[in-house]
Amino acid sequence: MKRRDFLKLCGSSLLAGNWLARNLWAKEPSVVAVSEGKDYAQITRSVIDALGGIKRFVKAGDIVVVKPNMGWDRKPEFAATTHPIVMKTIAEECLKAGAKRVKVFDNPCNEPRRSYENSGIPAALKGIENVEVKQMEEERYKKTKINGVALKEWELYADALSANVFISVPIAKHHSLTRLTLGCKNVMGIMGGNRGYIHRDIEEALADVNSTVKTHLVIVDATRILTNHGPSGGSLNDVKVLNKLIASTDMVAADAYATGLFGIKPTEISITVTAHKRGLGEIDLTKVKLIKA
Fold first, then answer.
1. DSSP letters of the chain?
2. Which among 195, 59, 278, 283 is positioned nearest to 186, based on CA atoms?
3. Domain at 29-292: CATH architecture
4. Residues of 60-96 as b/e, b for ≥16 C-beta within 10 angstroms?
5. pLDDT over 90 at 40, yes or no
6. What does pLDDT average to over the chain?
7. Percent of the chain at pLDDT above 70?
8. Cα–Cα distance between 114 and 183 in angstroms, integer?
9. Cα–Cα distance between 69 and 61 in angstroms, integer?
10. pLDDT tens digits, residue range 256-278?
């Protein structure tokens, strides 16, 4: 073989190798980690570690938003809000990774002060240096261009937009309108304005917002789930204790897995279907790598 032909062959092989590497990476499956146990702090650390550890997401000096569900005037045992121990552990892990500040907030449907207080989250985080739990302030909403299918612009909370890392921590529960509320829907808590408006096309609207605000890590709280009369609940008869957490960098895959806890197929939840169609994640669990932490 002539030298020129040999070099040409090597060059072609290198290009082919680069193409193959790029495409293999592009087809890397989504990963969902599941941790189970009665020690909620321990399973929170375990489920994060299963995805590579908190330092995969949080770097020294980062401003981190950890967004729970504090939308309802309910105590933790009623499974309408994110568990305070889960929230405390995530905040502590972020600080250990070097986060400059951890911000925790939600835009409740019930009266904000009572919703925050009864969730147990402010009390759990009280006294932890560099963790901020504040009610959302009207002047901090920013009119944001979305240019989506249902929404062209909307008022989104500035702290969520400017954070280095956005961690979503929804509770898995029944919802009277959308059947379930999970990770994709948790983003409603950073929206201002007349949120009732988006219910006319809620699937596309939520996909629009989730396309604008990236969730770097979702941890679905299934320590106990609300099986009926959601999203606010109010009866312990509707609560099922599972002692589980589900985590992923793929919000759709996490939601798809969590849907099975209710005996429902992911394809039956229109929010999840639309998010998948919009390219926000994988709905087919046969294409997802599952890790039991």
1. --HHHHHHHHHHHHHHHHHHHHHHHHTPPPEEEEEE-S-HHHHHHHHHHTTT-GGGT--TT-EEEEEE---SS--GGGSSS--HHHHHHHHHHHHHTT-SEEEE----SS-HHHHHHHHTHHHHHTT-TTEEE----GGGEEEEE---SS-SEEEEEHHHHH-SEEEEEPEEEEETTTEEE-HHHHGGGGB-S-GGGGGGGHHHHHHHHHHHS--SEEEEEEEEEE-SSTTT---GGGEEEEEEEEEES-HHHHHHHHHGGGT--GGG-HHHHHHHHTTS----GGGSEEEE-
2. 195
3. 3-Layer(aba) Sandwich (3.40)
4. eebbbbbbbbbbbbbebebbbbbbbbbbbbbbbbbbe
5. yes
6. 93
7. 91
8. 23
9. 25
10. 999 999 999 999 999 999 999 99
Task: For residue 213, count other CB atoms closer than 10 A to its CB.
Answer: 20
211 and 196 in contact (C-beta within 8 Å)? no
Q: What is the residue type of 155?
A: E
> What's the token pair of residue 197?
């408006």
The residues near 108 (Cβ < 8 Å, ≥ 6 apart) are 70, 71, 72, 73, 115, 116
What is the per-residue pLDDT across 223-261, written as a single tens digit (0 to 9) for each?
A: 999 999 999 999 999 999 999 999 999 999 999 999 999
Cα–Cα dist 234/147, whole Å: 38
**Number of other CB atoms surrounding residue 232 within 10 Å:** 18
pLDDT in tens, 134-157: 999 999 999 999 999 999 999 999
